[in-house]
Amino acid sequence: MEYALQKKLVEAILFLKEEPVKAERIAEIISLSKAEVERIVKDLQEEFARSGRGLQIFEVAGGYQMGTLPELAPYLERMYSEEVAGNLSNAAMETLAIIAYKQPVTRMEIESIRGVKCEHVLDSLLKRKLIRIKGRKEGPGRPLIYCTTPDFLRYFGLKDLDELPALEAGEGKGETP
Q1: DSSP 163
Q2: Where does 3-73 sit in CATH, by number?
């Protein structure tokens, strides 16, 4: 298969998928090596940047995803204003930040940091698949422990948790989802 066709196929796969696609999966679909797929994606990223298109290929949540340029967001949000209304509340953002930096973490630990109950916020974040229940903590009551998901990484456009901004107090990040 010639290189031009390989590039078209990779571009089409990324265009059609709503979720990030791992290089290994693309390689499997079109019978290439992971290294060849990574080279094609790099070439496509450079072509998109050179041509000044409104789309680009992001590396996010362990895979590749096609999306719009971040600087176009204010214009595109007008078109999708009904979806913008579904943004996260301040309480959800605070809770999500605690989970992202402290994971794995229990509801009681989150509530002790925030100073307020967070059951409903956790339910909302679980429904949006931004967090998941990782298991139960050993000890009295065996409370549920929460961590972020690949959807969290996608929502915020992160490759992994290492891209989270450093905490002012210099505390470390939690485990990778």
Answers
A1: G
A2: 1.10.10.10
Per-residue b or e along 68-99, where b marks 16 or more CB atoms closer than 10 Å to that residue's CB: eeeeeeeeeeeeeeeeeeeebeeebebbbebb
Place of tokens 């204003």: 81
Helix orientation angle between 3-16 and 23-30, rounded to the nearest 10 degrees: 120
> How many whole angstroms separate alpha carbon 159 and alpha carbon 57?
12
Would you say residue 170 has pLDDT above 80?
no
* pLDDT tens figures, 132-169: 999 998 888 889 999 999 989 888 888 888 888 887 75
Specify the length of the chain in residues: 177
Q: How far apart are CA 72 and CA 155, in angstroms?
A: 16
| Tokens matching residue 156 | 């915020």
Residues 6+ apart with CB under 8 A from 60: 20, 153, 154, 157, 158, 159
Provide the 10 A C-beta neighbour count for residue 11. Answer: 18
Show the CA angle centred on residue 45, arms to residues 159 and 79, nearest 5°: 75
Q: Supply φ then ψ for residue 127, to 5 degrees.
A: -60, -35
Question: Which of the four CATH numbers 1.10.8.100, 1.10.1760.20, 1.10.10.10, 3.40.50.300 does domain 88-163 have?
Answer: 1.10.10.10
Element (H, E) at 95: helix 90-102
